């Protein structure tokens, strides 16, 4: 029986698709902002990494908080997909610390949640004015 031909193979790539690994989140006080997000979402703040203070989201992505004390912080939008069974807990945490949540991104419907795409969602601000969103179902895109 003849030997099967040996075909060289390329080294395996660590990922099969492009994935977001981390992003910097600007904050006036990186510890305050990182701890706020971690407390609301039930996560932990990691050890400092250079000038960054990371919050690991548990899906291979970290938000790396970076301090900008003397510059204005440009508001950004960050959306977090949370399990349906944890949604009410997140809302309870927001209420416990006196943070108003809204059904819409423009913050015109306080104390309400939306029911987009068969799930639930809400928006709220972090200490630096970033517009944060929690949702239980991803958006249906065309």
Shape: globular
Largest sheet: 3 strands, mixed
Cα distance spanning the termini: 54 Å
What is the radius of gyration? 20 Å
Order of helices and strands: EHEEEHEE
Major beta sheet, strand line-up = 1-3-2
Which runs of at least 5 residues are low in confidence (pLDDT < 50)? none
Contiguous helical run count: 2
What proportion of the residues is helical, as a percent range? 10-25%
Percent strand equals 15-25%
* Strand element count: 6
Average predicted local confidence, pLDDT: 92
Q: Tell me the structural class.
A: alpha/beta
How would the blueprint of this fold be written?
Blueprint: E1 22-27, H1 30-41, E2 52-56, E3 62-67, E4 77-81, H2 84-96, E5 121-125, E6 131-135
Parallel strand pairs: 1-3, 4-6
Antiparallel strand pairs: 2-3, 5-6
Describe the structure in your own words.
By secondary structure, the protein is an alpha/beta fold. Helices cover 18% and strands 23% of the residues. It has two helices and six strands. It has a three-stranded mixed β-sheet, with helices on one face. Strand 2 and strand 3 form a beta hairpin. The radius of gyration is 20 Å and the shape is globular. The mean pLDDT is 92.
Short description:
The chain is an alpha/beta fold and 142 residues long. The chain has helices spanning 30-41, 84-96; strands spanning 22-27, 52-56, 62-67, 77-81, 121-125, 131-135. The mean pLDDT is 92.
Features:
6 strands, three-stranded mixed β-sheet, alpha/beta, 142 residues
């Amino acid at each position: 029986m003849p030997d099967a031909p040996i075909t060289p193979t390329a080294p395996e790539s660590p990922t099969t698709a492009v994935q977001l690994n981390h992003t910097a989140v600007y904050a006036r006080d990186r510890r305050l902002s990182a701890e706020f997000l971690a407390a609301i979402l039930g996560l932990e703040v990691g050890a400092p990494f250079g000038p960054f203070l990371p919050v690991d989201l548990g899906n291979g992505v970290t938000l790396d908080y970076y301090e900008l004390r003397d510059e204005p912080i440009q508001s950004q939008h960050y959306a977090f997909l949370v399990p349906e069974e944890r949604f009410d807990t997140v809302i309870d945490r927001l209420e416990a610390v006196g943070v108003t949540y809204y059904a819409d991104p423009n913050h015109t419907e306080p104390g309400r949640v939306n029911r987009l795409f068969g799930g639930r969602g809400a928006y709220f601000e972090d200490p630096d004015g970033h517009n944060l969103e929690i949702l239980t179902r991803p958006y249906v895109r065309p």
